[in-house]
Amino acid sequence: MSEETGSAKGGFKDLKKIFGGGQSDLRQFGILFSLIAIIVLFQYLTNGLTLSSGNLINLVSQYSYILILAIGMVMVIIAGHIDLSVGSVAAFAGIVVATSMDSWHFPWPLAILFGLVVGVLIGAWQGWWVAYVGVPAFIVTLAGMLIFRGGNQVIGNANTVPVPAGFTTIGAGYLPEVGPSTGYNNLTLLLGLVIAVAVAVKEWRARRVQQHMGSARAPLWVSVLKVVLQDAVVIYATMAFAGGRTGTSFPVSGIILGVLVLFYSFVTRNSIFGRHIYAVGGNRLAAELSGVNSRRVNFLVIMNMSILASLAGMIFVARSVASGPQDGTGWELDAIAAVFIGGAAVSGGIGTVTGSIIGGLVMGVLNNGLQLLGVGSDRVQIIKGLVLLVAVGVDVWNKSQGRPSITGFLMRGRNAAARSSGETTTSPASQSSDITLNQEKVI
Amino acid sequence: MATNHTILEMRSITKEFPGVKALSDVSITVLAGQIHAICGENGAGKSTLMNVLSGVHPSGTYTGDIVFEGEPVHFKDIRSSEAAGIVIIHQELALIPELSITENIFLGNEPGKRGVIDWVDAKKRALELLARVGLKDDPDTQIKHIGVGKQQLVEIAKALSKSVKLLILDEPTAALNEADSQHLLDLIRGLKGKGISSIMISHKLNEIEQVADSITIIRDGRAIETLNIKEDGVNEDRIIRGMVGRSLESRFPDRTPHIGEVFFEVRDWNVQHPQAAERMVVKNSSITVRRGEIVGLAGLMGAGRTELAMSIFGRSYGNFISGQIFKDGDEIQVRSVTEAIAHGLAYVSEDRKALGLNLIDDIKRSIVSAKLSKISVGQVVNKVKEYEASEAYRKSLRIKTPSVDAGVRKLSGGNQQKVVLAKWMFSDPDLLILDEPTRGIDVGAKYEIYGIIQALAAQGKGVIMISSELPELLGITDRIYTIFEGAITDCIPTDQADPESLMKSMTSAKKKVQSK
């Protein structure tokens, strides 16, 4: 694949790499494609409103807490569990934090820390039941859903509790205005610049690693095009976020989300603990016989989810300036939907943080776009339900056909043509016969 | 019963999967009242051929004709082939553990009227069927409470309930010990006397030689030859030659053992059953292993072989009662798998798919999974080192794959086993416990696995090898322990051992020996 052949297949495969389509990422590729399609569709239908400054800022602050939940949820689901309690835990943490500031007069930074401690304690409680007692997470978190929803109403007397202005920064704040007047928000511009450079550096490093490992490298033009495309998106977004209504810019909650995405992507992909999550979810017994402490993994994954849920709860409370008894209702379902749209497997062992974020964005953009079009929330729910069903249905169907993604299906004809021309590549379809033949047993 | 009319003819069967020709112009003929064996390496196309015959691959997805009892047939699913009297029993048993024997036998075929099951009739018929296969268990027993050998008999009873004319058995004895295998083979032979023909896929060539009337050898999706066992004087070497396309000089690679000092010792090991506290699964067992030595552990299934091995490996089985483990003269504490790995122990499970591998993972990640710390800085895995380490094993163990990025699920059984071996070699063990390392693996790959085991011993590592196949133990080990009902009954240097004496020690506790 290293030489720049003009063949249709070579060109297409290289093109896929622009979207980060390594062999294991093909599932994400399909869903990323859907996200782009949905954005383009709504951009057209709303006459450009979808990608306007105001709407993008709104989108980020409105969905950041769901996406934060999706990060924790994908790890729970990879480990082979589910967490139904996140909405209630978020609401519970929210009311406790609000009360701590309102009644006990905690300063807001201490209150945030306190909220995280509440998340740790709730997580330890639920994790203990799942990992050390052995009650299925479905049951433990169903119980948690009831317990912490009730707890919210007990502490808040089923009323709303307001939060002070300082606290609202984490949910409703924006990057502040600093430096010379440029007509744009300078910090947002700086952030955009850093990301744009990081994208290029990352690609360059990836190429060096690929070269070192001697694996198939895409031609240089693919890498250049990839960086150019990604940076074009970054620059467009930067200008949109920086050039919004005065006083608004990139939301603080978006920054919290971004840091969490980077951190948890790294943990799941590159750390020993991340490997252990996949191992336990893929085959718990085999993992245990390889020296993995599966109880510890389960405990930490469930605990981590509750910590992120309490963070999400605090961000939501900050955004809505008060904590109420109905906060977080149905969040668990949004988070779970995002994870499954993002390609995770119900049976565990499969899923990525990035995929789940993309899945969450699909739901978010869809929700937002339909609202902009004035579609009622009743119909929006029906459409979201169908999207979840179709997205996972297509994934399941593709897998049963031995194809990795929807785009793989669309390009089936081209692959077959390239194969019959006798081209040898590293694609799974053209592996030596005795390997592929064993698929017959899987059926 | 005329034995020479044709019951089944498959003519020029060609079956393609996307990108692969799994079968190419395969023809076989099965005579009524005969046992017809099909042999071939893993991936040669045996299972595909049987899937074509039983309707798993429906008519239209392959080319060629199937003629059954003189009529051309076009099965569109398993139901239609079963209706015609062709029943397939798969390698992985299709019984439901929580249901009773009766319920399993009549699953999908329940006797009764208008959707209401007649349990009295069902039970009566179940008893008759169980009598025919020689199973004396209560038909109300849940499947999970009977052993694999008996489960296989229930599968056959289930086939008989469907008035089977042609029985297809895919590796019927793969999971059975010798006694159960023998019983099953006798049963198949008995069915033949009652006019039921069989097609049998097996890797156990001695069994084929023993029961089959004729044999078709398949290689790379083509039928190489069909032989009559008696007339053509077929023996194991003849079959192997057909399967691999060359004769294997010997089934075991040559080796000159270099055996050192005793470095590993298990003393007075006692283990309790995890659920039933009154049952001791390992009793007062002691084992020693020398450096560079391959020690065999021979025992029937259920004798406590796996239980002994797994309880040594970080107490991963049962409740530990008492016993000591010494390594290099010092007593070591091995209370968890993590500690076992840290002390240089490795355990390759007999159940590759359930306990050995995460099937949805890829090769490189599987190979490093038992000792991630070796390629990590702190908590962070170095992916370049991971690639280099796994690539080195791919080359040295000749794992057949285009890339270490490929999923392990796609590999053949032999190559999967190489990945498991690589995984444990990567953990730098001093002692490897290999539990049935060649189960379900074809002849060519077995030879390679033997070579790997011998190479490990040559590096001065100790190997404990558990196997149900006595020829294998006699061929590759230096010393053999026999185990019966959880107790070590004998310890014989391999050059003084023979199958008969081993079998005797494996089936009786008479000779109590202190191993030295």
Structural topology:
The complex is a heterodimer of chains A (443) and B (516).
Chain A: H1 8-18, H2 26-45, H3 53-78, H4 86-102, H5 108-133, H6 137-155, E1 161-162, H7 169-172, H8 186-213, H9 220-242, H10 252-270, H11 272-282, H12 284-288, H13 294-320, E2 322-323, H14 331-341, H15 353-372, H16 377-400, H17 406-410, H18 412-420, H19 433-437, H20 439-442
Antiparallel strand pairs in A: 1-2
Helix pairs in contact in A: 1-9, 2-15, 3-9, 3-10, 3-13, 3-14, 3-15, 4-5, 4-6, 4-13, 5-6, 5-13, 8-9, 10-11, 11-13, 14-15, 15-16
Chain B: E1 6-17, E2 20-31, E3 35-39, H1 46-54, E4 62-68, E5 71-72, H2 78-84, E6 86-89, H3 101-105, E7 112-113, E8 116-117, H4 119-133, H5 148-161, E9 166-170, H6 178-193, E10 197-201, H7 205-211, E11 214-219, E12 222-228, H8 236-244, E13 262-272, E14 280-290, E15 294-298, H9 305-312, E16 319-327, E17 330-332, H10 337-342, E18 345-348, H11 352-356, H12 363-367, E19 376-377, E20 380-381, H13 383-396, H14 413-426, E21 431-435, H15 443-458, E22 462-467, H16 470-476, E23 479-484, E24 487-493, H17 499-507
Parallel strand pairs in B: 3-10, 3-11, 6-9, 9-10, 15-22, 15-23, 18-21, 21-22
Antiparallel strand pairs in B: 1-2, 1-4, 4-5, 7-8, 11-12, 13-14, 13-16, 16-17, 19-20, 23-24
Helix pairs in contact in B: 4-5, 14-15
